[in-house]
Amino acid sequence: MENSTYIALSRMDAQQRAMSVVADNMSNASTVGYKRENVLFSDYLSRQHGSTQPTGAETQAYTQDRATYRDFQQGDMQQTGNPLDLALGGEGYFQVQTANGVRLTRAGRFEKQQDGTVVDESGNALLDREGQPIVLPATDHQLTISSDGVITTETGEAGQIGIVTARDNNTLQAEGSHLLRSDQPTDAVDRPSILQGMVEGSNVQMMSEVTKMMDIQRNFDFMAQFVNAEATRQQNAIDKIVQVSA
Questions:
Q1: DSSP secondary structure string, 102-145?
Q2: How far apart are CA 6 and CA 227, in angstroms?
Q3: In whole angstroms, what separates CA 111 from the centre of its chain?
Q4: Mind giving me the DSSP string for 181-234?
Q5: Which 8-state DSSP code applies to residue 179?
Q6: Which residues pair with 226 in a beta bridge?
Q7: Model pTM score
Q8: Are 201 and 179 in contact (CB under 8 A)?
Q9: Residue 100, SS3?
Q10: Residue 3: in which H helix or E strand, if any?
Q11: CB of 77 within 8 A of CB of 194?
């Protein structure tokens, strides 16, 4: 198989990876707090030593999958009226306690369990500024949450939600559709902006993703046609050689 075919196949592999990421974005377009992903490709240059080809043809450029990164642009705010639906304006993350440790999230859809513990949709406890689960009085039903996270019920102040920032968002590792793992220490946000009765929607723009998917499909089809044409050309050359040899 000639190098041109290998180069085309490397690009087809990259397009398959890009299609998978776009499909994942589209499937999470309505997921609260979801941040869309993007792929980063680069050319892997392979220099042909001792080549007698003309200048410009001495280097082969293969497509290399470098990384997948998230777009942390804020999503649209959606009003719900639920007192435990919370959105963050600006930077920061909620902290929740999972079975695998503390995780960060922008998905602010919470609820109160029978024992008063505030949890997310997966049952992970929401943490306060000291990193402890927030537990509300089980018999209290009215609550207000200030922009800095102070929770007040009919019996008084019940705690303060802890909001943190990651030192480098690019190092955050996704776990599922809305949890992020930080392998570095986080920093508390001194003046967060918490909006009660609202959630932050996904920042996926469906029209943009559909357009991107169509472009990926066209590029993949073009590369597939090229590979098929190369295979046909090589087979024809082999058939002619065999005929001459016979």
A1: EEEE---BEEE-TTSBEEETTSPEEBBTTS-B-B--TT---EEE
A2: 9
A3: 25
A4: E-SS-EEE-SS--EEETEEE-----HHHHHHHHHHHHHHHHHHHHHHHHHHHHH
A5: E
A6: none
A7: 0.77
A8: no
A9: coil
A10: helix 3-27
A11: no
Of 64, 66, 61, 16, which Cα lies nearest the Cα of 39? 66
Neighbours of 245 (CB within 10 A): 6
Residues 6+ apart with CB under 8 A from 131: 95, 102, 162
What is the SS3 assignment for 178? coil
Q: 3-state DSSP call for residue 19?
A: helix
Mean pLDDT of each 10-residue bin along the chain, 246 residues long: 70 85 93 89 51 54 68 93 94 96 96 95 95 92 93 93 93 90 92 95 94 90 82 75 70
Tokens of 8: 């085309």
Largest CA distance in the chain: 98
> How would you classify the pairing of strands 143-145 and 101-105?
unpaired
> 206-216 pLDDT, tens per residue?
999 999 999 98
Q: What is the pLDDT of residue 149?
A: 94
Pairing type for strands 150-153 and 77-79 reads: unpaired
pLDDT of the residue at 44: 45
Q: Between vectors from CA 183 to CA 167 and to CA 161, what angle results, nearest 5°?
A: 65
* Residue 230 backbone phi and psi in degrees, to 5: -65, -40
Under a CB-based contact definition with an 8 Å cutoff, are residues 96 and 124 in contact?
yes
DSSP per residue, 36-83: -EEEEEEEEEEE-TT--SPTTSSEEEEEEEEEEEE--PPPPEEE---T
